[in-house]
Amino acid sequence: MFEGKIVILGVGNLLMSDEGVGIHAVQELMRRKLPAEVEVVDGGTSTLDLLPHLHKARRVIIIDVIKAGGEPGDIYRCRPEDLQENQEQPLSLHQVDFAHLMKMAELMGYQIGPAVIYGMEPAVIGWGMELSPIVAAKMPKLLELVLEEVSTHIENTP
Question: pTM here?
Fold first, then answer.
């Protein structure tokens, strides 16, 4: 049983419009009063550097952009192992996807509790620091879903 914190991890690139959705989300969450057992981490684009933040976390909630072929602004919930491991067509836009990150963590001796990914389908991936209007409009719903996930795991902790 993992007794650490619930880690909310946002990843992405703020310079590439909707690719920064995870960072925009955690920046908003950092402005809110969250329970002490929740840690919010701005992971940027360097997924391998995140392992120490995840070690012994009882639950990891990842927020990222996911290209899954849906409509811009669609929100997905999945586990790292649900993501395709097809290098020619990765769902995550980062160099190391989360399924591989979790495998690497295990091989390196990191202990990480169950993880879930909340991803949003992008409308625009290109130079720009603002989210596209459709993705920005869906941000409140994304945050609501993440906070419901946190609440569920806090309530179910013995």
Answer: 0.87
